[in-house]
Specification:
This protein has helices at 16-30, 60-67, 70-80; strands at residues 3-10, 36-43, 50-57, 88-93. It is an alpha+beta fold.
C-alpha cells in the first residue's frame, strides 16, 4: 500500500539556502530508489522557518529502507545542524474513500 511521508523541519534563520541545497541533494538521490513515486517541498506561508517535505512511496518498507541508507543519513545529519529543533517524521497510509 502506498504511503506518504511528511517531514517537518524548523530551520534556523539564515540557513534557508543551505537547506534548499541539501533537500535537493536528498531528492536527487531518492528518485533513484526502489519505491519512490514523487515528492514536494513546502514552506509555511505564516512561518517561513517551517518547511515540510512530502514524499510518496510504494510502501513503508521502501521508505524505511531509504531512510536508513548511509548516504541519506549523512545528508540528514547535515540538515539537522541547520535546524532549531529535530525533524519530525510521520508515515501516512493512503486509503481509499468511497462516497455513496
Amino acid at each position: 500500500m502506498a504511503v506518504r511521508i511528511i517531514i517537518e523541519r524548523k530551520i534556523k534563520k539564515g540557513k534557508e539556502v543551505e537547506l534548499s541545497k541539501l533537500l535537493l541533494e536528498l531528492r536527487s538521490r531518492a528518485v533513484k530508489e526502489k519505491g519512490y513515486i514523487t515528492g514536494e517541498t513546502l514552506r509555511d506561508y505564516d512561518d517561513p522557518s517551517t518547511h515540510i517535505v512530502i514524499s510518496t512511496w510504494e510502501s513503508a518498507e521502501d521508505w524505511k529502507r531509504w531512510s536508513n541508507r548511509e548516504g541519506r543519513m549523512e545528508v540528514q545529519s547535515r540538515i539537522e545542524e541547520l535546524l532549531s529543533e529535530p525533524s519530525k517524521t510521520k508515515i501516512y497510509e493512503l486509503i481509499g474513500v468511497r462516497i455513496d
